[in-house]
Every structure is written in structure tokens, then in C-alpha cells.
């Protein structure tokens, strides 16, 4: 049975009215129980974070945490539980990355925190888990080419900033153009879509974007599989159906299957007004990954 990592064991202290969907991490793990060997995501080491994030930023988190102004920019109140959960989410992505290099497929039922910059937190994201995992591989002497396929409804601005001057990492972001962040970072390929883009238009744009991105000839692919692209998401602004989401994922997974690269899937965003839709969308993504790629 394929292994996956989860932060469902981590608590997160938030006011009851807060829109962050902490329910989904336990919900997706429960939905996939019996289909995956779900393990608690390990906490990442501070020394590993230091391979990607700046020393001053990490020291601030360890000693004093975020100020009220910084917490406002993140969108989450500062607490020890927030830090602990972020450490485990990043650890899950690193563990999934090592699984992918060994078996061809790594799964983290968390992560995709693509708004974090080297020296600051932003948009629900303390650490950029994908950037940290890539930095760890580099430190271990792995020099392969990387493709980041970010299909969250929000541009992966932090990830684009991390790799702006790194020709070995190609960043693709397909997102709602008028969505957060208002100022987009230059990436290798940014595809901004109109509000309420439907299944057909989205899939047409994605097909062309993937064709271009895979000319990078990656040796490893990270897939940020946010489901905030679904219609009725609180923050997504796009209009995909669950069927359209499935077609999106199949398109990505089939491209990877044909090319034969190892894949790491991270969860990304999902804030649907119907919590069951958020959980169903995420669980569907991981099931399709297993269906398409588990037996390579």
C-alpha cells in the first residue's frame, strides 16, 4: 500500500469564525483510510529549513514569533500550534519527496504553502515546503531538473521568487488573474485566467501550459493540487466542477506517466463553502494519482 503523510495529528488553535479549513486535513485522511498507508507527517529540522529560508526569519519564528502586523499579512493568528503544524507540513513534503525519488510517487496530504518567501510568511504560509525540499536535495548532491506544476487558484508567488534565477527549476502557475496575490511574481510560465473560468476553458489553457512546461525535461515534478479552483470556493474565483477537477488531475498525471518522472503531490488550497466538497475534491486528486501512477 502506498504511503502518504498527514498533519491530522496536529492541532491548530483558531477562532471558531476563522475561514481557514483546518477540518480538511483530518477529513481527507479519513476519506483515504484503507486506500493509503497514512502516517503522521514528521516535523522538519530547523537545519533543513535553513537551507532555503533566511537565518533572521527562522530565528524570529523560534524566539518571538510573528508580530500582529505580520500575522495579519499571513492571515492567521500567531501561536505555537501554528508553528508546530507548519513544521510537520513541511516535513511531510520532504518525506514525500524522498518517497518519490525511491518509488516514483510521493504523497503529502498537506503542504503546498507556496506564498512563503525566503524571509517572510504570507497568505497562510510560514515555510515554502517545496522550496525547502528542493534545497535539501541540492544539499545532498542531487542535481536534477525540477518542474513545479502549481494549479492552486492563487499564483505561487513565493515559489516563483525562490527560483527566479535558477534555470534548473521551472515554475508553472495557472491561477485566477484577479486573485491574491494582486502583484504576481515573475515565474517561468504564469497563466492568469478570468474569474469564473469553466471546465472547458481551463482545460484548454492547462493543456497548452503543460506542453510548454514539460519541454524543461524535468527529472522530478512537484504538483500543487489545490482544489480552490472549484466553483463556490470562498477564495478561488474560478468555476470548475468536480468532474472538471478530475480531468485537470488526469491531464497532469497522464503527462507525468508518459514522461516517466517521479512525482510529489502536495495538497494546496481548498476553501469551498461546502466543506464536504473540499474534502471530496482533495480525496479525488489522491485517488486519481494512485489510479494513474501507483503501478509504474
Specify the CATH homologous superfamily: Histone deacetylase domain
CATH topology: Arginase, Chain A
What share of residues are in beta strands? 5-15%
> Between the first and last Cα atoms, what is the distance in angstroms?
14 Å
Outline type: globular
Overall SS class = alpha/beta
Q: If strands are numbered along the chain, what order do they take across the biggest sheet?
A: 3-8-7-4-5-6
Outline the low-pLDDT stretches.
none
Could you say what the CATH architecture is?
3-Layer(aba) Sandwich
Number of helices: 10
Number of domains: 1
Largest sheet: 6 strands, parallel
Helix content: 40-55%
Mean pLDDT: 97
How large is the radius of gyration? 17 Å
The total beta strand count reads: 8
What is the succession of H and E elements?
EHEHHHHEHEHEEHEHEH
Please describe what this structure looks like.
The protein is α/β, with parallel strands linked by helices and 296 residues long. The chain has one domain: Histone deacetylase domain (Arginase, Chain A, 3-Layer(aba) Sandwich), CATH 3.40.800. It is built from ten helices and eight strands. A six-stranded parallel sheet has the order 3-8-7-4-5-6. Helix 1 crosses helix 10 and helix 8 runs parallel beside helix 9. It is globular, with a radius of gyration of 17 Å. The mean pLDDT is 97.
Amino acid at each position: 500500500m502506498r504511503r502518504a503523510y498527514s498533519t491530522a495529528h496536529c492541532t491548530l488553535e483558531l477562532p471558531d469564525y476563522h475561514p481557514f479549513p483546518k477540518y480538511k486535513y483530518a477529513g481527507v485522511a479519513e476519506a483515504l483510510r484503507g486506500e493509503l498507508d497514512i502516517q503522521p507527517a514528521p516535523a522538519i529540522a530547523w537545519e533543513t529549513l535553513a537551507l532555503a529560508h533566511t537565518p533572521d526569519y527562522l530565528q524570529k519564528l523560534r524566539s518571538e514569533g510573528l508580530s500582529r502586523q505580520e500575522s495579519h499579512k499571513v492571515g492567521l493568528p500567531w501561536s505555537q500550534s501554528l508553528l508546530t503544524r507548519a513544521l510537520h507540513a513541511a516535513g511531510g513534503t520532504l518525506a514525500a519527496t524522498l518517497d518519490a525519488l525511491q518509488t516514483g510517487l510521493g504523497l503529502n496530504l498537506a503542504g503546498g504553502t507556496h506564498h512563503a518567501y525566503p524571509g517572510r510568511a504570507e497568505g497562510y504560509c510560514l515555510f515554502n515546503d517545496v522550496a525547502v525540499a528542493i534545497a535539501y536535495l541540492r544539499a545532498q548532491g542531487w542535481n536534477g531538473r525540477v518542474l513545479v506544476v502549481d494549479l492552486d487558484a492563487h499564483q505561487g508567488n513565493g515559489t516563483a521568487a525562490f527560483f527566479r534565477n535558477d534555470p534548473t527549476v521551472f515554475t508553472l502557475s495557472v491561477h485566477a488573474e484577479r486573485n491574491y496575490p494582486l502583484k504576481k511574481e515573475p515565474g517561468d510560465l504564469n497563466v492568469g485566467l478570468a474569474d469564473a473560468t469553466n471546465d472547458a476553458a481551463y482545460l484548454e489553457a492547462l493543456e497548452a501550459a503543460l506542453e510548454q512546461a514539460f519541454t524543461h525535461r524535468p527529472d522530478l515534478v512537484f504538483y500543487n493540487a489545490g482544489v480552490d479552483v472549484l466553483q463556490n470556493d470562498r477564495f478561488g474565483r474560478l468555476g470548475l466542477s468536480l468532474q472538471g477537477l478530475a480531468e485537470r488531475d488526469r491531464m497532469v498525471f497522464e503527462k507525468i506517466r508518459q514522461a516517466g518522472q517521479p512525482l510529489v503531490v502536495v495538497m494546496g488550497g481548498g476553501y469551498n463553502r461546502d466543506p464536504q466538497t473540499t474534502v471530496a475534491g482533495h480525496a479525488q486528486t489522491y485517488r486519481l494519482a494512485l489510479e494513474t501512477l501507483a503501478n509504474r
